[in-house]
Amino acid sequence: SEPDSKYKNMEDNISPGTLLFLYTDGLSECTNKEGKEFGLKQIRKILIKNYHKSAQEIRDTMKDEAFNFFKGSSLDDDITFIVLKLKKFIG
Q1: Any idea what DSSP says for residue 31?
Q2: What pLDDT digit, counting tens, does each position of 38-78 carry?
Q3: Are strands 19-23 and 81-85 parallel, antiparallel or unpaired?
Q4: What's the predicted TM-score (pTM) here?
Q5: Are 66 and 75 in contact (CB under 8 A)?
Q6: How many helices and strands in the chain, by DSSP H and E?
Q7: Gyration radius of the chain over CA positions
C-alpha cells in the first residue's frame, strides 16, 4: 500500500444467510485465450445463481467456472478467493 493511503474502519452487523466473498484481482482481471476478462459481472452472476448453496459448494462452483473460463490461456496472476456464509448467530 502507498505510504499516504487512508483507510476507513467500518463495522456492520451480519445477519444469518449473509454471503461474504473476498477475492484478489487475479480472479476478476485474468483473461481467457480470446483476451476477455472473467470480470465482476461473471463473479456476481455465479454468486447470485448459487447463493442457496453452502460456502463449500459456492467455492467449488466458482473454481470450476473460473478454470473452465481460463482453460487454454496462461495465468499471469494468482487467483485467491474466500467464501464465508453465516448460517446462524453464534453466541
Answers
A1: B
A2: 999 999 999 999 999 999 999 999 999 999 998 877 777 88
A3: antiparallel
A4: 0.79
A5: no
A6: 3, 2
A7: 16
